[in-house]
Amino acid sequence: MYLDRRNFLKIAGVSSALQMMPGLSFGQKDEIIIGHNTHKYKVMVGWGVLDAQKTPVNDCHEMVEDAKGRLIMCTNETKNNILIYDKSGKLLETWGNSYPGAHGLTIFNEGEKQYLLLCDNSRNQVIKTDLKGNEIFKIEYPKETGEYQYPSQFVPTESAVNPLNGDIYVVDGYGKNFVMQYDAKGKYIRHWGGNGTESGQFKCNHGVIVDMRKPENPTLIITSRQQNCWKRFTLDGKYLSTIELPGSFICRPVIKNQNLFGAVFRSTSEDYPNSGYIQILDANDKVVSSPGASEPIYINGKLQEQRKSDPAKVFMHPHDVCIDSDDSIYIPQWASKKTYPVKLERV
């Protein structure tokens, strides 16, 4: 899966290799370094790899860090839907065997405790659990909206929780592309969006987050993956703006400090397999680094189309990013030969 410097130079030649690797370099002991500008990362080869006979994964969809620094990942492998790692890659715990469509994973605080929201797109539900997997409640298909006649029309991909009041936002990325807003108990408040090309509509609203970087004016950032963008809304669903990411089929937005992160599960077109990478944006929604991709270039304020540039074959189809308290990034991958997450350590 990985190329070291010696083999890469042997294959490509020194001059060709340098031209082919604008976002890739080698550190001491042939370490693989990817990324651009202020955000470069060392690939931690072999991190988190487990015995697939005992602890298998299928699609590794999403990962979050809890208050104890543990890394919680969901997979749609029902032998162990939830894998919990420490930062060294040691497996601490597993649970869950009833989530065949485990896809979205959100962690949030409620008083002194933390809880999870698990979006299962086979069960057509959003399930609230504690960190041990005990189910608290379920959000069923949103018949209150008048948009859904039966459960299979509702295929939730992600959720987010407003830390100010506990409101829950659910996006139906593989269904009708509506955004549903609920209160902290799962009671329906409103919905908006839907499948379409208007500014307030979506083409695969795959992810959502409450952006608290400006606490006086919190907003929602919601994915429109087929349109290669994230869209910003008020907390009650009014469209504000679009963050264009040309060439990037972006998944859910993730915020760490002042940066916005996202996994690109493929680039440019559906006919370009194993073509994913990572996007990192600054506080002004400008891409500053694209580990595994071509360098982000702006012309007249417009980001130019990007695509995979990953000669070391670090990524196949990244599906999420988890940024820990040490600024390391963990990347679960979809449809990537049942591989375990990739860890990138900030350099």
Looking at this protein, list some descriptive labels.
Neuraminidase, globular, 6-stranded antiparallel β-sheet, 347 residues, 4-stranded antiparallel β-sheet
Give structural notes:
This protein is mostly beta strands. The chain has a single domain, classed as TolB, C-terminal domain (Neuraminidase), CATH 2.120.10.30. It contains 2 helices and 28 strands. Strands 1-2-3-28-27-26 form a 6-stranded antiparallel beta sheet, with no helix packed on it. Strands 4-5-6-7 form a 4-stranded antiparallel beta sheet, with no helix packed on it. The protein has a 4-stranded antiparallel beta sheet with strand order 8-9-10-11, with no helix packed on it. Helix 1 crosses helix 2. It is globular and about 55 Å long. The N terminus is likely disordered.
